[in-house]
Automatic annotation (TrEMBL):
Lineage of the organism: Eukaryota, Viridiplantae, Streptophyta, Embryophyta, Tracheophyta
Domain Gnk2-homologous: from-to ranges: 33-138, 144-251
Membrane topology value: Single-pass membrane protein
Domain Protein kinase: 341-617
Name used for this protein in its record: Cysteine-rich receptor-kinase-like protein
Entries under CDD domains matching the protein: Gnk2-like, STKc_IRAK
Organism of derivation: Pisum sativum
Membrane-crossing segments per the record: 276-299
Length: 659
């Protein structure tokens, strides 16, 4: 065996021997810590009270979401004074299963150690995890009390050099940790210390803190290190919002290449005989350990190669959020604006979550879209919507004011649009009478201008993919604003079409090439606009229309009547017949947009020209993509499977019978 191998084996053996000799020293600082109701200004809860039941529910379900794999949980449960807030934070190196196991054990210890307390916090051994609950909002708020510090009882070989290295290491790690995102703010590393020693360090913040608050918390810990741990070979400072630790020659956290080693001890004064015996034992052990390490490294390389491809897309998405950092809002700010998401502020609820009305501290009214945990829109769609909408500025597009990506929370903050969405008016038998033709025409033209901006006039070329009445909002003057860009796709300047295996949107508004084959383009949005135009003119949803004993769909109903010269049958009876020619022209334009042949559909630029000029002769439309003659059931051709039983985002349902 070579000399380097012998030395490596000796080092491994010494770590094994040191483990037993130093255990007594570390037992004094590795116990758990807890604090109960540190404010002492609130009454305790009573057993089996509403608060007690809410607390039990929250703590037992806190880690139930297995999609969270970054070690941070923050949830609340209950209402008003009985609402409980809780956070669970695991050390950044813990695997998801180890994290959940640690928090589960902490839950049992915390409720046993702090019975009937309305606020409590628990740190497990080695600060592997922290569990905290309170009856007051604790999300996104820096807390520096209660805190504790402890040190290893052994002194460093070179006190001055050791102190210098410790402060330099922890300061560097602080700079890295504060740059983390809303999932993890954590950094660990090492520097050479006195003699042959290595000093290892770890710092971490609760990820719902802002960069500024995280830095402030860690700096306070750093300033406390000289008081508690000067000249010592190990120490830590722990607060509710952050923690910091260092150890000499003791790798106490998980790394990519090796698990934590047991702590060594000071070897000064050991006899030569002990060293010789150690070498003799180390040689055979070293061979086995080296083979094992080589095997583990090979497995790690194979796993890393696969993982690289999996995380590449996520890293690209994270880059988008960094660009939009100025728009990021604190969760506490949004809670205050919506009165803690109180039910009376609820504006509506859809497949992606609930929308609340709110008011910022400056008096500005806002609409807060809070995504549900089980919504179809995940992190990718969320970041996509933020990235796209923040760059768009047009009077017919809803304006994004900010966003919150904090723990499990995914929140979008928009300008508040007073008159709800178009479907609230157009499909209601009473309210649609308020939409006289001039107003409907203004809405049609505004929607067309908004889509044209997305397709051709903005710096980005964007395909919306989910145009429908519920995604068109109306302001105080009934100007339309296109909303919900969670499914939008960005195109290159010269790109005209793309394919996808994931069909998103709402059946009934989808172009046939997209619904059946995943092909989408600007003409896909044109098709959706055509359906929307026909709905505005007729006041009828794009689903079955009874005609005697038969049922047909809006596009085929409009096509048949236009072809037979009875297009006025399509017009909403509440409209003024004085504008009949203009209304029939709009039906004609709508039928041009929903043609099956993509190349026959007009562009949005052409649509706006047609709408603005009555002197232009319109081409004759061909049959719509989903045409069914109600008088001849033989004209119905099924796709072979029913695509249209439900909307992708669970907002609207439309059955289709395409040809």
């Amino acid at each position: 065996m070579s000399i380097p191998s012998l030395l490596c084996s000796l080092q491994i053996l010494l770590f094994i021997i040191f483990t037993y000799q130093t255990k007594a020293v570390y037992d004094q600082i590795n116990s758990y810590h807890y604090f109960c109701d540190q404010s002492n200004n609130r009454a305790n809860y009573t057993t089996n009270s509403t608060y007690h039941k809410n607390l039990n529910t929250l703590l037992t379900t806190l880690t139930s979401n297995t999609d969270i794999n970054y070690g941070f949980y923050n949830f609340s449960f209950g209402e008003s004074s009985d609402r409980v807030y809780s956070t669970g934070l695991c050390r950044g190196d813990l695997l998801p299963n180890d994290c959940r196991s640690c928090l589960s054990g902490s839950r049992e210890n915390l409720t046993r150690s702090c019975p009937n307390q309305r606020e409590a916090i628990f740190w497990s051994k080695d600060e592997r995890c922290m569990l905290r609950y309170s009856d007051q909002l604790i999300f996104g708020i820096m807390e520096d009390v209660p805190n504790f510090s402890s040190n290893n009882l052994d002194d460093s070989v070179d006190v001055n050099l050791s102190n210098e290295v410790v402060m330099s290491l922890l300061n560097n790690l602080t700079s890295k940790a504060v740059k983390g995102d809303s999932r993890i703010k954590y950094a660990a590393g090492s520097l050479p210390g006195p003699s042959v020693e290595i000093i290892y360090g770890l710092v971490q913040c609760a990820p719902d803190l802002s960069e500024k608050d995280c830095n402030s918390c860690l700096v306070e810990n750093l300033q406390q290190i000289p008081d508690c741990c000067k000249g010592k070979i190990g120490g830590r400072v722990v607060r509710p919002s952050c923690n910091m630790r260092f150890e000499t020659s003791y790798l106490f956290y998980e790394t990519r290449a090796s698990p934590p080693r047991s702590p060594p001890t000071n070897t000064t004064g050991k006899s030569k005989r002990s060293t010789i015996v150690g070498i003799g034992v180390a040689i055979p052990i070293g061979v086995v350990v080296l083979v094992f390490i080589f095997f583990c490294i090979c497995l790690k390389i194979r796993k890393s190669k696969k993982k690289f491809e999996d995380i590449q897309e996520e890293e690209d998405q994270d880059g988008k959020i960094e660009v939009l950092e100025p728009l990021q809002l604190n969760f506490n700010t949004i809670c205050n604006a919506t009165n803690d998401f109180f039910d009376s502020n609820k504006l509506g609820e859809g497949g992606f979550g609930i929308v609340y009305k709110g008011r910022l501290s400056n008096g500005q009214e806002i609409a807060v879209k809070r995504l549900s945990g089980d919504s179809g829109q995940g992190d990718s769609e969320f970041k996509n919507e933020v990235f796209l909408v923040a760059k768009l500025q047009h009077r017919n597009l809803v304006r994004l004011l900010g966003f919150c990506l904090q723990g499990r929370e995914r929140i979008l903050v928009y300008e508040f649009v007073h008159n709800k969405s178009l479907d609230y008016f157009i499909f209601d038998q009473t309210k649609k009478a308020q939409l006289y033709w001039e107003m409907r025409y203004k809405i049609i033209l505004g929607i067309a201008r908004g889509i044209l901006y997305l397709h051709e006039d903005s710096r980005l070329r964007i395909i919306h993919r989910d145009l429908k009445a519920s995604n068109v909002l109306l302001d105080e003057e009934m100007n339309p604003k296109i909303a919900d860009f969670g499914m939008a796709r960005l195109f290159g300047v010269d790109q005209t079409q793309a394919n996808t295996r994931r069909i998103v949107g709402t059946y009934g508004y989808m172009a046939p090439e997209y619904a059946m084959h995943g092909h989408f383009s600007m003409k896909s949005d044109v098709f959706s606009f055509g359906i929307l135009l026909l709905e505005i003119v007729s006041g009828i949803k794009n689903h079955g229309i009874r005609d005697g004993e038969y049922t047909e769909y809006l596009s085929s109903f409009a096509w048949r009547n236009w072809k037979d010269g009875t297009a006025t049958n399509v017009i909403d009876p509440t409209l003024n017949n004085d504008s009949q020619n203009e209304i029939v022209r709009c039906i004609h334009i709508g039928l041009l947009c929903v043609q099956e042949n993509i190349s026959n559909r007009p562009t949005m630029a052409s649509v706006i020209v047609m709408l603005n000029s009555h002197s232009i002769t319109l081409p004759v439309p061909s049959e719509p993509a989903f045409y069914m003659d109600s008088r001849n059931s033989q004209d119905i051709i099924s796709w072979g499977h029913n695509l249209a039983q439900e909307s992708i985002n669970e907002v609207s349902n439309t059955e289709l019978y395409p040809r």
